[in-house]
Design goal:
The protein has 147 residues and is of the alpha+beta class. A three-stranded antiparallel beta sheet has the order 1-4-5. The longest helix has 12 residues. The chain has five helices and seven strands, in the order βββαββααββαα. The chain is 33% helix and 12% strand. The chain has a domain of 69 residues. It is globular, with a radius of gyration of 17 Å. It comes from Debaryomyces hansenii (strain ATCC 36239 / CBS 767 / BCRC 21394 / JCM 1990 / NBRC 0083 / IGC 2968) (Yeast).
C-alpha cells in the first residue's frame, strides 16, 4: 500500500510531439481546479501543471490519480483489507473527496451513492463528474474528470 507522486524527472518532454494550436485555451477541470479552472495557452504549460499538481501513481496497481487525496481514497477503498472489513460491518467508510481531519470536510458516508450526493450538494461537484475515478484512475489521453 505504497504511494509516490510522480516527479517531473519521470516525464520526458519531446517538443516535436507536443501539438499546440494558436488561440486555443486549455482549461484544467480536474479537482481541485474544477471550481475555479486554471487556463493554459499551450499544451506544455498544461502538461507541466498536470505533472506538478495532479499526477499521483498507485504503486500497487499503477493507476494514476488527479491528486494525493484521490490516491489516498483509492488505496483505502481498493487495497486496504481493513476498509473491506469495516464496510462489511456496516460502518461508514466512504470519505468525502475533500476529507480532512484538520480544517476540511469530515463527512464519511455509508455508500458511494451518498458520497456522490454529498459531493454534488455540499461541494458543488458537477453531476457529470467521474466519481468512479477513485477506482479507475485518470486516463492520460482524457485528463478531464467529466463524463
Amino acid at each position: 500500500m505504497s504511494k509516490r507522486p510522480r516527479r517531473e524527472s519521470d516525464v520526458e518532454y519531446n517538443e516535436e510531439q507536443v501539438l499546440t494550436s494558436r488561440g486555443t485555451v486549455i482549461n484544467c477541470s480536474i479537482p481541485p481546479c474544477h471550481s475555479n479552472p486554471i487556463s493554459f495557452n499551450d499544451y506544455l504549460a498544461y502538461e507541466a501543471h498536470i505533472v506538478d499538481t495532479h499526477n499521483f501513481l498507485c504503486l500497487e496497481c499503477q493507476k494514476k490519480f488527479p491528486s494525493e487525496t484521490f490516491l489516498d481514497i483509492h488505496i483505502d477503498e481498493n487495497h486496504n483489507p481493513f476498509f473491506q472489513i469495516s464496510k462489511e460491518k456496516g460502518e461508514k467508510v466512504y470519505k468525502c473527496f475533500q476529507y480532512s481531519l484538520t480544517g476540511g470536510c469530515k463527512k464519511i458516508c455509508i455508500d458511494r451513492r451518498k458520497r456522490r450526493l454529498h459531493m454534488i450538494d455540499k461541494h458543488a461537484y458537477p453531476r457529470n463528474f467521474n466519481f468512479g475515478v477513485v477506482d479507475s484512475g485518470i486516463d492520460p489521453k482524457k485528463p478531464s474528470l467529466l463524463k
